[in-house]
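Hello,

Our lab assistant flagged a job as stuck in the queue for most of the afternoon. It eventually completed. Since we weren't sure the result was trustworthy after the delay, we are filing this so someone can double-check. Below is the sequence as submitted and the structure that was eventually returned. Let us know if re-running is recommended.
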Amino acid sequence: MATHKSAEKRARQTIKRNTINRVRRSRVATAVKAVDIAIAANDVEAAKKAQRVAESALAKSAGRTLHWKTAARKASRLAKRVKTLKKA
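-- returned structure --
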């Protein structure tokens, strides 16, 4: 338990930051899952729309919640999967 003023403030900030990060990670996971569902259904248009939303969520979390290279890697792999769906 925090016993001095700065430690109490850090504890408050940690709770806020933890909540924000959880929301961002959840938003990214939900968006990626929507792309996966569209790909499984073989729906090109839905996959494109879901990919746009997922890339936006990844970009917003990059550098804050996720490492920027992790976000870029995930976006790249999503784009590659959607692109192969178009060819098939």
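-- support follow-up --
The delay was a queue issue, not a problem with the job. The result is valid. The radius of gyration is 17 Å. The first helix runs from residue 5 to 40.
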